[in-house]
Amino acid sequence: MDTTLHYSDYINILKEELVPAMGCTEPIAIAFASAKAKEVLGCTPDSVRLDVSGNILKNVKSVVVPHTGGLRGIPAAAAIGIVAGDADKQLEVLADISRSQIEDAKSFLDSTPISVHYADTPHIFDIMVTLSAGDDSAFVRICEHHTNIVCIRKNNETLFEKEVIPQENGLTDHSVLSIEEIIEFAESTDLEPLRSTLERQIDYNMAIAMVGMKNDYGANIGSTLLSHGKPDIYQKMRAYAAAGSDARMNGCEMPVIICSGSGNQGITASVPLIVYAQEEGYASDDLLRALIVSNLVTIHLKAGIGRLSAYCGVVSAGVGSAAGVAFLKGGRYDTIAHTIVNALAMDSGIICDGAKASCAAKIASAVDAGLLGLFMYENGNQFYSGEGLVAKGVENTIRNIGSLARNGMATTDKEIIRIMLEN
In this structure, are 86 and 213 located in the same domain? Predict the structure, then answer.
């Protein structure tokens, strides 16, 4: 690999993307913005206004906000962030919450006007928090990704502002990614700069998967998958990934390592691969290199789609995990490229109708499609260029899927949001 080209970019991308978050990342982003606004205001507000994009409404409406005693929705996320959040911890803003603070947040919700408004914004990811106390006010805006603060104001004074750059504001350019280079990087890179990042992903995401499997969370998709017949390794891969989402979507207060801004994607890109490597006895460093493939393939697929859309993000992560399994088994460019194309031909088009319990079932389906894509190639079968969205060359197929999700499903996204807001 020519390390003068993208070696440092790939390391930076993984370190930027594989970060811890407690709870579903959209409500956590609201809690983070609210905690930051409270810090700027300097006191507890007597009113709260939130202006958010449609995808934020969609992804926060039905999910349990951690450390709230089971509360759901945007007002709950804002209230706990204001009352007890630590803005310095960003996506772990709710990591250290006491029982008394939970009660204080509930009291704040009951006594303080909190209004939520659908923002007229061109940005899919947009959160604007305005806190007022008497004659004073504070405003914080997060745009394009979960910790990207673009504006801070107190009263009429702008304390901080920067240009909003679509999609990856402030992050390493993801356009450097390609399947061929991802594989070369995973094979040749020195693991030491990434070891702690990848080992943390293993520890965090397997821990929540185990908790989800052993306890009653949501629709219990993970334990249901193992409840019929004698499970094989591939059923376990699907089940433990789903169990992590069972827990995360339904109030578990353990952190996960996210990928492309999503904990469910972080779980899906890692847990099936970890289960496979552990069951089959692969060396730890081999697993780390396979995780590099899985995470970077997921990030590459999501780069063309965007952080939030009507296209379910775990489809990309299920494809990524299958690419990681292919790498672990000794497959390289041909195997991985065909696995990706085959899997994308199957499950692309699963809609995202917000964060909630059924995300776990979509994870199981995405992992299954990824594995079937791999098995097809191992058995000498594949989908061909011209069949639907499949094009000649893996990068062209990836571009087609990105165009479908970002452009073709934009109207679908608006209709999903309209339906959800009416229910």
Answer: no
Mean pLDDT across the chain: 92
Give kind and range of the element (H or E) at residue 76: helix 74-84
Range with lowest mean pLDDT among 124-133, 162-171, 205-214, 226-235: 162-171
Q: Is the pLDDT of residue 287 over 50?
A: yes
SS3 110: helix
What is the count of structural domains for the chain?
2
Degrees, nearest 5: CA angle 192-195-199: 165
- Taking the CA atoms of 50, 56, 62 and 64 in sequence, report the sign of the dihedral they define: negative
| Residue 45 CB partners (closer than 8 Å, separation 6+) | 38, 82, 112, 131, 132, 133, 138
With tokens 């700027």, the residue in question is: 40
Q: What is the pLDDT of residue 91?
A: 84
Bridge-partner residues for 151, per DSSP?
141, 161
> Where are the alpha helices (H) located in 281-358, listed in sequence order?
284-305, 314-328, 333-347
Helix axes 263-280, 192-214, angle to 10 degrees: 90
pLDDT attached to residue 1: 42
Last residue of a domain, one of 98, 126, 161: 161
pLDDT tens across 126-147, in order?
A: 999 999 999 999 999 999 888 8
In angstroms, the CA 312 to CA 330 distance is 29
Rounded to whole angstroms, the Cα distance separating 281 from 119 reads 51
- Residue ranges making up the domain that contains 115: 23-161
